[in-house]
Amino acid sequence: MTESIYSTYPPKLSETQEQFLVSTIKDWTIQHGLTVRPPATFVSQDAVSKGVLATNAPVTLFPSPFPKACFEEARAVQKVYNELYARITSDEKWLGEVIEELIDVDDFVAGLWKVHQAVSKEGYVQDLSVGLFRSDYMVHTLGSETASLKQVEFNTISSSFGGLSCRVAALHTELLQSPPGHSLSYPGHPLLDGRVPPENTAVETLSAGLAAAHEAYGPSKSSPALPLGILFVVQEGERNIFDQLALSTRLTQFHKIPVFRLVTSEILDRTSIAEANPSRPLIYTPPHAQGTPFEITTVYLRSFYAPTDYKTDRDWSARLQLERSAAIKCPTVLNQLSGCKKIQQVLADPNKPDYLARFVPTAESEGTQEKLRKTFAPQYDLSPSGRGRELALNPETAARHVLKPQREGGGNNVYKEAIPEFLKSIPESDWKGYVLMELIQPPSEASNVVLRSDGEVVSGNVVGELGIFGTILWKSNGEILHNEEGGWLMRTKGKESNEGGVAAGFSSLDSIILY
Amino acid sequence: MTESIYSTYPPKLSETQEQFLVSTIKDWTIQHGLTVRPPATFVSQDAVSKGVLATNAPVTLFPSPFPKACFEEARAVQKVYNELYARITSDEKWLGEVIEELIDVDDFVAGLWKVHQAVSKEGYVQDLSVGLFRSDYMVHTLGSETASLKQVEFNTISSSFGGLSCRVAALHTELLQSPPGHSLSYPGHPLLDGRVPPENTAVETLSAGLAAAHEAYGPSKSSPALPLGILFVVQEGERNIFDQLALSTRLTQFHKIPVFRLVTSEILDRTSIAEANPSRPLIYTPPHAQGTPFEITTVYLRSFYAPTDYKTDRDWSARLQLERSAAIKCPTVLNQLSGCKKIQQVLADPNKPDYLARFVPTAESEGTQEKLRKTFAPQYDLSPSGRGRELALNPETAARHVLKPQREGGGNNVYKEAIPEFLKSIPESDWKGYVLMELIQPPSEASNVVLRSDGEVVSGNVVGELGIFGTILWKSNGEILHNEEGGWLMRTKGKESNEGGVAAGFSSLDSIILY
């Protein structure tokens, strides 16, 4: 079924049908804020610098088919995954042992660990952490076997596209049902007949997670008491701002919580910690209302996730300032580190002890651990005499694997037969910077048509990646105050592109039709 | 009050306050579709041609103060105005007499009249007309007198900006109340304290007018019966498309009515009238779904209002095709003609018979006529030995007047002392192409700050124009099936610019704070 469904999907478009869909989507996206700021490659740097232009986010013309059982399985394990990563984050000793192995090969991890150590030495003043997570999966098919779900990545920081993803679902839903009573936007196809994408509550769920943290922070720790608010820490010149604004709008309009945006480079200018106050509340003074400082309950990071976000020592100082404050961090440094590929590998390594049993309590039946484990693709490190090294160096077994650099921004993945040669070309001491992962085999005939941000329409074979959003608020003693699953993201990439985020260009935002 | 209110309004912005407001508005407008397509002067023609870029509609940073009594007065007379223009339209004899005076000097009016005559000869097959009207006013102040309301124009075709106007009201409302519980976006000012713009239901009202027409059309007149829908006739390359989409989205999502957009140049390609069917239903075949023709119940014109919309005879044929069809027109040719400046002048000419009494039935108390008349600024034609000619040629009296060309696109207004000289420079036979209007004196110190579509921020003295939206559906026998008032538009123009639509560049969309 999974392979055969693509033999007729998506239905072929005539020229006028494509024209209609494309022009409708160009207008719909702008009307509904399914937008990004245009890159300077498309319009002049001068026009971009005015900060007023926008263009559609890259989107597929059609929703992509996705096996219903896999979608439900992914949703069913999300709250367990939330808890797993909360527990890993709280187990500083175990997490530290894994992370310390990386410090030699990964300056970025080393820098983050140093921030944690500094705060740890001084003593943390905030016992709560909040996570806005996204677990990413691909559908794995082997021959005519039933499709299964395999986890690609678990994101613990800056899990993006919740805002825009909801709008893509709304776009496809509207197209599928338009004009009212007729459904003529798409050519007829059995898969589209009467179906619409499942409800997407990503904005509600993610915002509710931040609102729960804001609530749990309690009263102002300043004296006199200050008004409270949430701080979004963002990158300079963010093109994906409308995705973020969907969350802040929900927080202000529905939850009635003040939200401020602050670029990383201004953290030290606009925030302060009253050193005389042992509770270390984080004070933010809006530049436009300097007479009304706010106390920040929750810092939501949409920056500081990549090495490029730390250009100077000042950026590290800024991160430290946030970390040592009383604000609840989304995420803490430790929670960010728990999202390392290395952690995923250690959990999924068939030759390692059963760490899952350590973190997923037996009180939750044995079946729960098994459900998580089913979503793992086998992963290995390349330690001497380990199974991973053996699989990677043998061209025959390497052909079923991908070699991923542990380090963010640490270069491209290496695929299949190229792995043995690549490893031999670098010093053996660098091998611990890589993780070997069994290749996930997505449906090979999947295809779709994409409207890019520059207005070009491209079509061809694609690979889809489903993300499930979840949020969790927990105390360092393990007590969980809020644990929710809700909302999803479908990203569809051209087969040529093995890597790259959606905003970066080639991949696109999509929605799903369950079958 | 009206003058003095501006001595402290709008409050001065510091550099960081302006920066915050401007960047917030740049983001908000894109997020909420308060947008236009950018002009080719701002981005390259090549980028524009991709059809994906958008920028903010020009908007004021602050809502403008507006006298509450004037706002209520304007709303109170709208349904009477709707009825007045419906009655004028239905009085073909009276309307024809006024229009025929213009035919010599105005090819455009002549062309429209010819369309009416052709259909009249053949016989109209549609007894219903629908109007989406907008009555535009300025606040008139003289010295320290109380402000009064004076009508600038009554629009019977393509009354625009209902869609975007609602969003400007929402923008200013959100700014006035943000962050939640604090209101720090603007510097403090008594006029802004606790106030927000009045509710703006323009989208609901205008869409309900079209929906009422669709409903009143009745069952399909084709055999076999065809599905029914509304047709938006639009200009090629419309930059103000998102204003229009607000209405079609409301019609499809709330009223569940199919809506199609068609550029004028494609009317003859995509629509047809079954000549064998004496009811002359208008059939529209969507290019993307050619197997499913629709019967058009209602033609909504967002084109065909200006001479430039009729480039060739083919355009006139297209207008004729719509006019002679069974579709309900918004508006008919006659209804469009009723919106001529000349009609307004004839109604408002103190030296003419009391036409108002003819059209506003005495059953509605004498007070009603008086309420309308109060909104008129005196207007005159320039007929020999008439009062208008006398006022226009005397420099002293000319100084209180503006000379307006009757013809759309017929040149610029001529102001005050320049009037006598201008009239002497043109042949006397052309004078009947002009209307002399007593100048409305808006508050002279009104000022505001505008964010233009190219990102520039300009501030200075402004003139505001308030439009009130209304819709009416009536039978040619005078029976009224639907008559509603609802929604408003505030347009604010830099003092330098005496003319020009909002999308054209210098003027901007605004909202109001009642005082």
UniProtKB/TrEMBL annotation, chains A, B:
Domain of life: Eukaryota
Protein name: Glutathione synthetase
Note describing how the cofactor binds: Binds 1 Mg(2+) ion per subunit.
UniProt pathway: Sulfur metabolism; glutathione biosynthesis; glutathione from L-cysteine and L-glutamate: step 2/2
Entries under NCBIfam families matching the protein: glut_syn_euk
Binding residues for ATP: 153, 341, 404-413, 415, 437-440, 465, 493, 499
UniProt: substrate binding residues: 134, 157-160, 238-240, 244, 302-305, 491, 502-503
Cofactor dependence: Mg(2+)
Organism field: Talaromyces pinophilus
Annotated positions binding Mg(2+): 153, 155, 408
Matches recorded under PANTHER family: GLUTATHIONE SYNTHETASE
E.C. number: 6.3.2.3
